User: Fold this.
Amino acid sequence: MQNFGFVREESSLSVTDSQRDVVQAQINMINTTADMVVPLTDWRSKFRKFWSDYRWRMRHYFYIHLSVFFINTLLCGVIVWNIEERQIPFIDCWFISATCVFTCGLQTYQFASFRLSSQILLLIFTLISGE
Assistant:
């Protein structure tokens, strides 16, 4: 890297030669560090070695998958509960949303008794989490 555009007026600063050498050495060290390139092949080989552990991959995929579904059911249940203005108990809203997310078809309330916005939301979550 070149230090183009770095202009210093000698009359405004009084710096000794040793201070100037220290500053220049620090600038050179920063430039050397900035010009250093990390080889992509080293990073790629480390990533492949890390990913090649089959048990790690399957176990974490399972936990991530399960947590996404669980969070979807909670989120959908809270939204439906608020749309219905808390007239339906939260556990029932959560159960209906879990039924839609897991595409089970179980119901504690009639689907037609929900408001249209709740029905649309439940169908969207069914589409998102479905096949």
